[in-house]
Amino acid sequence: MFRLAFRRFSTAVRPIVTQRLNKQSLAIASVRNFSENPDETDEQFDARWEAYFNKPDIDDWELRRGLNELHGHDCVPEPKIIIAALKACRRLNDSAMAIRLLEAVKFKGGVSASVIYPYVIQEIKPALEELGISTPEELGLDKPAY
Amino acid sequence: MALILRSSVLRRFLSTTCRSSTGARMDLVYEDRTDYPAPHVRFTKDAELAEDLKALRKKEAGDWKNLTADEKRALYRLAFHKSYADMKAPTGEWKVILGGVCFALAVSAGIYMFQKDYILPEPPHTLNEDWQAQLRDYMIRMHNNPIEGIASKWDYEKNDWKK
């Protein structure tokens, strides 16, 4: 009885399944899983992001998108990129984002944050003083408020 | 000062979230995440700020060296709800979870005991120890399983278990 039922079921379903399989294989054939981007050296990466944040008429959306994408990379951004981003925050009059950016850098330091973060702060100190930005530690934002 | 500013920010935010969430695009929602340092939008909308906070936003357009630490903190809380330290701070939620799990266990134990006392039928007579002893004697008398089973372990001459 089960065999009969199965045979009926399979003959009814076969056209659907085969159709779907055909469609899938077509779709796979037409999309090539190649990366469009050629390999990029670290220097090119740094220069690309520095240029991104140095764009004179960068807007709020671009700044946020850039910070988020840079945060997603497996690296802590170079101080020169951070300085460029801080200046972009200054052009957009967004002092909060400048502080947030420093917090994000500290977060990206992970287990080595105690080594990396002071180095970054030391490197960007002139820019911080020039723009009048306080670090999260100076503002007490490194301690939870709630 | 900072506390007053923050509570007014929160009140303002709570009063406007419902309105903005109905008509606004759903992808432009504020969210605090450690892996996305910059949310889509600011925590508060400039147009909906109180007058003193609007003045503060105007002051932000000037030189940042003129801002005090309190003002910088207030500006930060206008743009972001939680700092990274706030996000990473322990929430104490584990207590709620542990309590909930223990409560669920207690409820299910209560249901089990209630069922055992009032719903389930009596256990079958084969679980009775007297019955099991009678059955064992019967199997020995029957010479049941004489090679490896119960009868092989019974000494029929001494009428006792083999030592």
From TrEMBL, chain A:
**Subcellular localization, per the record?**
Mitochondrion inner membrane
Q: Which branch of life, at top level? A: Eukaryota
UniProt membrane topology term: Peripheral membrane protein
Q: Which PANTHER family match?
A: CYTOCHROME C OXIDASE POLYPEPTIDE, CYTOCHROME C OXIDASE SUBUNIT 5A, MITOCHONDRIAL
Q: What is this protein called?
A: Cytochrome c oxidase subunit 5A, mitochondrial
Q: Which InterPro entries match?
A: Cyt_c_oxidase_su5A/6 (IPR003204), Cyt_c_oxidase_su5A/6_sf (IPR036545)
Principal location: mitochondrion
Q: Which UniProt keywords apply?
A: Heme, Iron, Membrane, Metal-binding, Mitochondrion, Mitochondrion inner membrane, Transit peptide
Q: Which family does it belong to?
A: Belongs to the cytochrome c oxidase subunit 5A family.
Per the entry, what this protein does is:
Component of the cytochrome c oxidase, the last enzyme in the mitochondrial electron transport chain which drives oxidative phosphorylation. The respiratory chain contains 3 multisubunit complexes succinate dehydrogenase (complex II, CII), ubiquinol-cytochrome c oxidoreductase (cytochrome b-c1 complex, complex III, CIII) and cytochrome c oxidase (complex IV, CIV), that cooperate to transfer electrons derived from NADH and succinate to molecular oxygen, creating an electrochemical gradient over the inner membrane that drives transmembrane transport and the ATP synthase.
Subunit field text: Component of the cytochrome c oxidase (complex IV, CIV), a multisubunit enzyme composed of a catalytic core of 3 subunits and several supernumerary subunits. The complex exists as a monomer or a dimer and forms supercomplexes (SCs) in the inner mitochondrial membrane with ubiquinol-cytochrome c oxidoreductase (cytochrome b-c1 complex, complex III, CIII).
Residue spans crossing the bilayer: none
CDD domains listed in its UniProt record:
Cyt_c_Oxidase_Va
One Pfam assignment: COX5A
Query: What pathway, per the record?
Result: Energy metabolism; oxidative phosphorylation
TrEMBL record, chain B:
| Gene3D superfamilies referenced in this protein's UniProt entry, alphabetically | Cytochrome c oxidase subunit IV
Membrane-spanning regions, if any? none
CDD domains hit by this protein: Cyt_c_Oxidase_IV
Task: Give the originating organism.
Answer: Saccoglossus kowalevskii (Acorn worm)
| Signal peptide limits | none
Work out whether the entry's keyword set contains Oxidoreductase: yes
Q: Provide this UniProt record's keywords sorted from A to Z.
A: Membrane, Mitochondrion, Mitochondrion inner membrane, Oxidoreductase, Transit peptide, Transmembrane, Transmembrane helix
Annotated membrane topology is: Single-pass membrane protein
Name of the protein described by the UniProt record: Cytochrome c oxidase subunit 4
- State the family it belongs to: Belongs to the cytochrome c oxidase IV family.
Subunit composition and interactions = Component of the cytochrome c oxidase (complex IV, CIV), a multisubunit enzyme composed of 14 subunits.
Which pathway? Energy metabolism; oxidative phosphorylation
Q: Does the keyword Mitochondrion apply?
A: yes
Q: What does this protein do?
A: Component of the cytochrome c oxidase, the last enzyme in the mitochondrial electron transport chain which drives oxidative phosphorylation.
Q: Where in the cell is it found?
A: Mitochondrion inner membrane
